[in-house]
């Protein structure tokens, strides 16, 4: 069975409307707010700043990374990579509560992002004993999304141990072993 043949003028009109809605041609339905359209120059500049911030972070210059990322995230703009990098920079600069806010925003916007949940768990752990339950909850979410996330499993075992739950800690490690997850020592987000 073949799709019905659409007269060329209708197909062309549909394509033009689709392109217009994306902002590529005029004469169709377009977003009412011109700011809603992506500006290629702005996006290139944003990606460049994010890349520079990543370099600053790799060079152990979290304050420089924060300075680069602040304008990127200004005005409520959502950029998952910028949020995660900002959280890491804040964590490196000893500001775990602010880092947790960035990671929580990333996890809320992209609830299927295991790394956002993992980093949120690490930031909550770095905030202290009274935030260990929140850390455990975020780490469990990360592991549900990525069952072989070795770092999340190891940090979860540590958090449970810190909370006095030795059997819970052991069960996390046993589950990891049953799944074939290697558990050598790796750096976790709380440093």
Protein model, in words:
The chain has helices at 8-21, 40-58, 62-73, 80-92, 96-109, 114-127, 132-145, 150-162, 166-178. It has 191 residues and is mainly α. α5 (96-109) runs antiparallel to α6 (114-127) and α6 packs parallel to α8. The radius of gyration is 22 Å and the shape is globular.
Can you give the helix content as a percent range?
A: 55-70%
Instruction: Give the overall shape.
Output: globular
Note the main sheet: none
Strand content: under 5%
What sequence of helices (H) and strands (E) makes up the elements? HHHHHHHHH
Q: Would you count the extended β strands for me?
A: 0
* End-to-end C-alpha gap: 61 Å
Q: Summed up, what is this model?
A:
By secondary structure, this protein is mainly alpha-helical. The protein is 66% helix and 0% strand.
Write the layout of secondary structure elements.
Elements: H1 8-21, H2 40-58, H3 62-73, H4 80-92, H5 96-109, H6 114-127, H7 132-145, H8 150-162, H9 166-178
Short key terms for the protein model shown above:
191 residues, mainly alpha, 9 helices, 66% helix, disordered N terminus, disordered C terminus
